[in-house]
Amino acid sequence: MTDLDQAHAAMDAAPDDDAARLRFYERLADTELFMLLGAEAEGDQITPELFTIEDQQFTLVFDREERLAEFVGRAAPYAGLPGRALVQMLAGQGIGLGLNLDVAPSAMLIPAEAVDWLVATLAHRPDQTEARLTEVSPPRGLPDAVISGLDRKLAIAAGLARFAYLAAATYDDGAKGHVLAFVDATPGAEEALANAAGEALTFSGIDAGVMDVLFARSSDPLAAHLARVGLRFDLPEPAEPARPAAPGMDPAKPPKLR
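User: That's the sequence. What structure does it adopt?
Assistant: Structure tokens below.
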């Protein structure tokens, strides 16, 4: 079973569990999806194959190339891109997703309204504030959903930082909370890392106010103190970039809907 299969099964087993539903949509956003096209791509312009089901249009997407090939049964053009990029491309178009239809246990129709909701949820960005830390200590009281959510999200942030520490924090105004400190972040990656941390909270169903994000160098005294009291998350080393095999596979050049 793929990650999407497992997340779908958990959601299906607990239809009233909002947390399970959020985790499914998080996996959908983070998974590379392969979309069936109606024609070969022309440069960065793509035309999805659309189907009308119950008076609504859907485009077909699969979380494995093999599943797309099994469904189609012939050679067919497709575009591969992260789920978050795909839904952002479809936002406001009135187009839903037919996910893994007929070829996987995660087969389902995701209506256009859910696509738009996911885009709006992903658009949430952490607020920037100025506050002075006066104390950091071992993390306490955070739900397991936050810890596991951070673990999942940071596992796909390869190469953006060396590691991160989660710790309880006290500020100069007396406020208390938690802080996630990224150590030796790659220059320019700060916004992406802050957004990843924010998404981990959002899709855990937790108020974003429970955790702040900061950045430190390994030579900073704060990093040494965090190493003693914080919960460490190691970020993977970056993989060698693969040559794009289909339109949309290059994240620096996302396709445009035609």
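The chain has a mean pLDDT of 88.
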